[in-house]
Amino acid sequence: MRTTEVCPVVNIANMCIDSIAADKSISHRSVIFSFLSNQKSRVKNYLFGEDTLNTLKVAIHLGLEVLDSNGNLNDVDSIKHSSEIYLYPRNGINEPSDILYCGNAGTAIRLYMGLLAPNKGQFILSGDKYLNSRPMARIIKPLNSIGANISARCDHTLAPICINGATLKPFDYFSDISSAQVKSAMILSALQIDGVSKFSEISKSRDHSERMLIGMGANLEINSNEITIFSNKNPLNPLDITIPADPSSAFYFAILAAISKDTKVVLKNILLNPTRIEAFYVLQKMGVDIDIEITSSQYENVGNITIKNNNLNAITIDSNISWLIDEIPALAIAFACANGVSKVVNAKELRFKESDRIKATLEGMRAFGVKCEELDDGFIIEGGINKIHQHTIIDSYGDHRIAMSFAILGIVYGVIIKDSACIDVSFPNFLDILKTITEIKNY
Ligand code: S3P
Q1: Quick check: is 356 catalytic?
Q2: Contact status, residue 338 vs residue 387, Cβ threshold 8 Å
């Protein structure tokens, strides 16, 4: 198990970062959606992190041809050095001869369930010990209610999952959780079901699937939180996409700017989807200077974000939680350094992520000497830079977002992170960027 030490630095120079890893959500989708076309999709700047490499490997098992511009075919180790890949489902979706291993990737396992449920064949999806303890009934239940044949461990709630392809019926489904993974799985099935289906959710989750599928020619009608999906009569157009940098990955460096005195950070080519940059607006409400500039647009707006430290004041977060869910551990770092008491509520979903993020965040906070209180659906953090301890040891619990959040606090106060290899799940060059600021030791 890898352990990483981040050594503290006193003054952090201004930074301009143009190497933030590509967006994870869009990378997963580009591979999974390519099966809905019968032509070659072109994807530039794919994220070759652990999660999205597993998505590619599963796609290859299902018959997708993955090529790069050097002619490497289905050779993921060579392809992962390519800036451009081509995805060709020459014979559609094939029954695989092995289990489909999704590693740590919740997005992969859940979206593949929606893609595969209406297809002929048997498909067994599994993951690592963390993924196999995350809730899957949120997808299995609605799909089985419309005719899917999906069974799973622990009374059909946990992976490994076994799908026997079946003919599904059109549906009208309301989801009482705001989850882009649930929504995307249901849309993927609906596109392959004869007839018209409707999906609505309690509040709007991230909307990359809708944008990309409409871009591929899918017939979706969107009316605030409700989506009408007309089945695909013909295969969709292929994707031709350059994946922008991931705002959730970029956000760690926004936190660095927010907690270090007089440091300005410029983040380049960041995905500016409104459902993904809410955390930057939270920092702005806390008093940080944030400037967002749109530079281009393809399926989504892309641009640069400039962050400059200013007085950091406490805040209460009780809404738009699904737009912040991946950034709350990093925001907790800003809360610890802010003046006053910050609070997060209505965020029980945090308990069902790569780790129980409420527990993992607060355990790390306590190790740094930060006073905090656990709530069933969130937490309270008492801020104040004078109370934070130096050189602390924390456990990531295998959760990339916990590891990277505390690494940022470590740049100012020093930290040793246990179980740090998970960083590669979403941001394989994160520590390389940190090395330009401070000393990093891996054990
Ligand atoms: C994701 C959706 C979110 C997010 C996850 C990626 C996606 O999960 O936490 O990291 O790509 O659709 P939920 O939609 O389940 O909240």
Answers
A1: no
A2: no
